Amino acid sequence: MSDREAILARVRAAIADVPAAEAPEFDPDRAEPDARYARTGELDPAARLALFVERSGDYRAEVTVCAEDPAAVAAAVAAACSRHAARRLVVPAGLDPAWLPPGVEPVADDPPLAPAGLGACDGVLSGCELAIAVTGTVVLAGGGPAQGRRAVTLLPDLHICVVRGPQIVETVPEAVARLAAPIAARGAITLISGPSATSDIELKRVEGVHGPRRLELIVTDPSL
Amino acid sequence: MTPSGGFPVAAREAVADSQLRANLRGATHAIRDKRAAAVAEVADWQELREAGRLIKERAMRHLDRHLEALEAAVVAAGGQVHWAGDAAAANRIVGDLVAATGSTEVVKVKSLATDEIGLNEALAARGIDALETDLAELINQLAGDTSSHILVPAIHRNRAEIRELFLRELPDPGELDETPGALAEAARRYLRERFLRAEVAVSGANFGVAETGTVGVVESEGNGRMCTTLPRTLITVMGIEKVLPRLTDLEVMLQLLPRSATAERMNPYTSLWTGVTPGDGPQEFHLVLLDAGRTNALRDEVGRQALHCIRCSACLNVCPVYERTGGHAYGSVYPGPIGAILTPQLADLDQGATLPWASSLCGACYEVCPVKIDIPTVLVHLRGKVIRREAGGGGAEDAAERLSMKAAAAAFATPRRYRLAQRVVLPVLRLLTGVPGLARIVPGPLAAWTSVRELPEPPRETFSDWWRGRS
Q1: Within-domain flag for B298
Q2: Does B287 share its domain with B322?
Q3: CA of A184 to nearest chain B CA: how many angstroms apart?
Q4: Which of B204, B369, B422, B426 yields a CA-CA distance of 20 to 30 A from B214?
Q5: For residue B458, what pLDDT band results from cuts at 50, 70 and 90?
């Protein structure tokens, strides 16, 4: 018998006590009250955006809020670049070219850059798939517009990420619901909450180990 | 796995190390306070815990179909699935896969499952160098040390020790002071080049979603992203209990895990991949499904909930026993309360049989567990199993315990016998506590109790005597 068959046989013998009619999965829509957790948020868009700004800032992302207008985004990108003395930015396919300020040299990932080439860039400018207010998280879906393949947002030491206000959801369940489509398309998903960090040495939090050590978030507010 | 003499002997040595005790006390209290704050922020925390429990319970109670579904989904997404009945099989599979790439080094993401099966040693025996990339795991690997905590494996080392280690072991440590920032920077420089040249990575998995074939790693440093993105080949070793039936299950787990583990609303990085994505990340993906005793635990209707564990380590940080002994005394990659119920079950009680006693049954572990594993109940259940198995062949202490329990049962059987017993026992207790030091020289197996505890002073009269005199 192969290991596969042997393991499955052991599993079946071990759970022989389970009634065959029992539902094999937990269904949040039909949960008993004691397992009914919040799946949707309650905040209006302005409060949701404010919460995202607060929570993402808590974990040392640098957050700039600007108007929902490419020129305002470009100005915020320029300010972020000057904070970090960055000039050459990797730019994934699908990124709005109007987000690029003068003086910044865009580097296309086409043909795909070698890892060393990516690491040698000053930073990367990307969009995102969505963002989660409660946890201050941005979510990237590999292959999605302005998001590129995973290495592009991993190897440069500075990640500037543009989050458009309407992309912000309030809760984690709302975010996971929106991941079904990119996952079905086999896109790799990366959840990012603040810059890379470790607390492995005496539990002292240190920002910046292997991932980008600086995370700049530019949040566009449609009400501005 | 368990050192000779088991937990009691190892714990006695650990408790004698006052520096270790001080480190552990500081660390566990710091994390537990932060966790409590992160949890207090969530209004529906108890509902999330119950949902988490139900998700894992259903996953285990229908494990066969979820594993088959996971396999089908991973294969459909371009991955390959391998099944390993035990540690040796898993090590052989991973070794063969690495050998087939022609590579002699792999980068690794922190993984308890691969620690459990001794993968690094098995690869080394085949001439393959496995490099740990999590900072704490790297520290332990460079020091030839083992993990002492699920989440912060080098919790037993301080910064000065780590600096010494890096100066001695890293090829080009440069000027290195002992701030955590400088030490992390040294690790970054050392590992960056290895990430860029690695052709094979080995990871564990926090979960594998049967519905979609999506596998996930939750981390902080970015070494997980590096390993699951840059190499051409990715090999993931996943215990079969890590399967989640549905993608929506993630909406619960991604809330429970970070707050319980690192006391963060969300950990810095979570990577989710589904098979192989053309042009993005590893172009070859192998998922190794590992049993290695999990089906032993699954057989036990009470004990199987140990398989619900999502490895957050909250139970370690609140445990009064772990706080004093640290992780090494448990003699297992799974220390603390969860280790005390998982380790013996994985080994079918052949190892770690003393671990169910490594607890005061205070219940703090149950209260913090994000998926509501009733650890105290399983501990008591396993004590019974161990005792029953050893009955007949037990040592003197077991015999004494059985004898005293039988005596107690006889005394409690009728009110008359109970009063009689009180009349006999009270004067003896008064004698023992009346003479200083006498209780400490109680002979024989009873000394196991009196050597570490004071006898309470017995009351002047029994409750029933007092009650009768009052009416």
Answers
A1: no
A2: no
A3: 7
A4: B369
A5: confident
Average pLDDT over residues A81-100: 97
Whether the pLDDT of residue B1 is over 50: the answer is no
**Beta strands A130-132 and A137-141, pairing class:** antiparallel
A71 and B CB contact within 8 Å: no
A7 vs B63: CA distance, rounded Å: 11
Query: Which chain B residue lies closest to A153 (C-alpha atoms)?
Result: B225
Asked if A181 is an interface residue toward chain B (Cβ–Cβ < 8 A), one would say: no
Question: Do A193 and B68 count as a contact with CB atoms less than 8 A apart?
Answer: no
A-proximal residues of B, 28-67, CB under 8 Å: 30-31, 43-44, 46-48, 50-51, 54-55, 58, 60-67
Domains of chain A in start order, with CATH, are 43-221 (3.40.50.10420)
Q: What is the mean pLDDT of residues B431-442?
A: 70
Residues from chain B that touch A3, judged by Cβ atoms under 8 A, are 83-85, 89, 291
**B151 shares contact with chain A (CB less than 8 Å):** no
Residue B465, pLDDT > 80, answer yes
d(CA B426, CA B130): 64
Q: What is the mean pLDDT of residues A88-99?
A: 97
**Cβ of A143 and B66 within 8 Å?**
no
pLDDT digit string, tens, across residues A96-143 = 999 999 999 999 999 999 999 999 999 999 999 999 999 999 999 998
φ, ψ for residue A183 (rounded to 5)?
-70, -40
Residue A203 touches partner B, C-beta closer than 8 Å? yes
Shared-domain flag, residues B192 and B240: yes
B288 in the same domain as B313: no
More confident residue, B2 or A188: A188
Element holding B54 (H helix, E strand): helix B45-61
Do the domain assignments include residue B229?
Answer: yes
CB B209, CB B242: distance < 8 Å:
no
Decide which of B207 and B426 is more confident. Answer: B207
Give the model confidence (pLDDT) of B204-227 as tens digits. 999 999 999 999 999 999 999 999
Q: Is A14 on the interface with B (CB under 8 A)?
A: yes
Structural domain count of chain B: 3
What confidence score (pLDDT) does residue B3 get?
44
Domain hosting B378: range is 309-390
Same domain, residue pair B90 and B208 = yes
Which of B232, B260, B292 marks a domain boundary? Answer: B292
Chain B CA closest to residue A111: B279
DSSP codes joined into one string, A160-221? EEEEEGGGEESSHHHHHHTTHHHHHTT--EEEE-SS-EE-TTTT--EE-SSS-SEEEEEEEE
| Same-domain pairing of B386 and B417 | no
- Cα dihedral A202, A208, A209, A211, rounded to 10, equals 150
Q: How many inter-chain contacts (A to B, CB under 8 Å) are there?
A: 268
The verdict on ipTM greater than 0.85 is yes
**A67 inside 8 A of chain B by CB:** no
Residue B177 forms contact with A (CB below 8 Å): no
Calpha distance B442→B425 (Å, rounded)? 15
| Contact call for A201 and B251, based on CB within 8 A | no
Smallest CA–CA separation between A26 and chain B, in Å? Answer: 5
Q: How many residues does chain B have?
A: 471
